[in-house]
Amino acid sequence: MTSLVVLDFDATGIKQPARSAVAAAVKLGGEVHVLLSGTGIGESAAAAAKIAGVSKVLVADDASLTHELAETTAALVVSLAPAYSHIFQAATAAGKNMIPRAAALLDVQVISDISDVIDADTFIRPIYAGNALATVKSSDSKKLITVRASSFDPVAAEGGSATIENVTVPTAGTSSKYLSSELSKSERPELTAAKIIVSGGRGMQNGENFTKLIDPVADKLGAAVGASRAAVDAGYVPNDYQVGQTGKIVAPQLYIAIGISGAIQHLAGMKDSKVIVAINKDEDAPIFQVADYGLVGDLFTILPELEKAL
Amino acid sequence: MKLLVAVKRVVDYNVKVRVKSDKSGVETAGVKMSMNPFDEIAVEEAIRLKEKGIATEIVAVSIGVTQAQETIRTALAMGADRGILVETDVAVEPLAVAKLLKALAEKEGAELVILGKQAIDDDMNATGQMLAALLGWPQGTFASKVEIADGNAKVTREVDGGLETVELKLPAVVTADLRLNEPRYASLPNIMKARKKQIDIVKPADLGVDVTPRLTIVSVAEPPGRKAGIKVPDVATLVDKLRNEAKVI
């Protein structure tokens, strides 16, 4: 039994969710190989070789693989698949885009967003926005899996000494072309890797209040900033801030929900946080039912006070 | 250009689901069912493409039990032209759904298939990607903007760091994210008109597809519950608790 983990990485290095996907493969047992695809991979490959539990790093360096295009990456994964019993990637936007495509090409039913590994065929995954946990057993001879990163502690970034090997990239033409990106620039930690998250909801009333009231608190705490769907839909903050069933799934040490009522779709994205704080003027808001510490009151007076007290 | 749009009948998004006592699944008897919210967005996008004169015909497809006709009827009331139900009592998985949709896309000669990015029941987020793979078409998943011109679909996608735009040569598969559009409500006259629109019913075997599930549900359990904690009177107490009790700051 050998697993292949497709790693998410960029110019800043290997992403933390990728090491959580490695943790899922390590939990399964057997050998763990990792794959990096794209261009200019050298440094990331060296970093990947040090990840604890990894025995081999596969490098696919080809211009056709830049920007994580699902069409070309899935073709690459399919070409490598015969050597592997399990193929994993974190349930990042890239993983969710590519792994099901590769699975279909292999005639395998993908197992999405697993939160635990039981044995080689059996996995646990949340369904209905995390309101139920399904234990599923796959009869496919090969498993293609995306991993809920917040459910697996990432393996250590250091400690391994894997070999690095270049692989042949299939020359599949594609009718898909990357054009451009508009990425949010932030000095703050990424949502899926942050230890503390400060999130705002509709109660923030506008985007300026995020900047004026939430950012200073986040800065004091070294926290990432998140948002509910309502705040994103209203245009207060960009889409990549969204925490929830269909946004990012997070489980930080501390999650501070400000002006967020707590729809089940939002709770689905953050209820595994270690400590939850809710600040809301509506004392009946459902968010208080999951909060360890609740503070009822006006966020416009509470947030400046909180910033001063930290 | 003919357009296929896939719609799934799911437990309504406002319902708090309960796990059955025998742990075989969640309780769906007597529970309100609706069209998967992401599929509503897919239907709306299809209708807008028709209103712009880009799409000529919209076929709404659902796969599932007899009652899924109601879901198709909703799509027809919104503005889809006709429907196809692939009728089965099997809980079909994304791979099987993709195979059925592939057969229909080929039979209908569709040039674009739009689906919701994920169904809110099984949360798989897979059918569109799997369909694109089987058809050998490019995919524009998690779309927040779609522009069709010169035989290409320019799709803006919601990704982890923000937005990304790709250009897909048609035919292609697009999956709808939340902010692609705001679905319309069907007007009463349109609901009446939809009753007369045609829904064809076929079986998976008619399309030559084996829908036997690859995943067995061993059990379905309630997640560990979270108890409400305490209310604190002021900011000072909150900060003190976080520092000295929870020790998280």
What is the structure about, briefly put?
By secondary structure, chain A is α/β, with parallel strands linked by helices.
Distance between the termini of chain B: 57 Å
Distance between the termini of chain A: 50 Å
Look at the helices and sheets of chain B and give the structural class.
alpha/beta
Poorly predicted runs of chain B are none
The count of β-strands of chain A is 18
Q: What integer is the average pLDDT of chain A? A: 96
What general outline of chain B do the C-alpha atoms trace? globular
Percent strand of chain A equals 25-35%
Output the radius of gyration of chain B. 21 Å
Secondary structure tally, helices of chain A = 8
Kindly describe this structure.
- The complex is a heterodimer of chains A (310) and B (249).
- In chain A, 27% of the residues lie in helices and 28% in strands.
- With 310 residues, chain A is α/β, with parallel strands linked by helices.
- In chain A, helix 7 links the parallel strand 16 (254-258) and strand 17.
- The radius of gyration of chain A is 20 Å and the shape is globular.
- Chain B is α/β, with parallel strands linked by helices and 249 residues long.
- The longest helix of chain B is centred in the first third of the chain and has 15 residues, at 37-51.
- The mean pLDDT of chain B is 97.
- Chains A and B meet through helix 3, helix 4, strand 7, strand 9 and strand 10 of A and helix 3, helix 4, strand 7, strand 8 and strand 9 of B.
